[in-house]
Amino acid sequence: MLNHDTDIDSLPETLEAVFAGEHDLIANAANMAALLFQTLPDVNWAGFYFLQGDELVLGPFQGKVACVRIPLGRGVCGTAAQERRTIVVEDVHAFPGHIACDAASRSEIVVPLIQDGRVLGVLDIDSPIPGRFSPNDKILCERAASLLLESLRRA
């Protein structure tokens, strides 16, 4: 069923297999965080924050202990959720208002999870390498996020 040696090119198909028959957001987000963390090279954190009121609250993740609550509009995650757009940051130290949960993180990509016009949360991936995330990584992460959202629709 699952290939534990998933490569980046087969990540979407692997996610579809993982999500098959499961519609729970937390369960699928947990497996997706683990898969992204194991598959993407040079990543030190991969996970989710879910919108509750006017703040993002920590969800399933892989990596070091993280910030639990992020106000909407603050940091990369809060900004991506508020602006409803993917943000790729080459150097987090240059991002105004960056929230440093792990001092080792140098670059970051955050993809908002938007379903039926509503922001559910964000997918957040960090790397200790500046400029780690390419345009192809952006496409891959947005595709992964859309597969997660599709898994909820099949319920």
TrEMBL record:
It comes from the Bacteria. SMART domains: GAF. Signal peptide: none annotated. Residues 10-153 form the GAF domain. Belongs to the free Met sulfoxide reductase family. This is GAF domain-containing protein. It comes from Endosaccharibacter trunci.
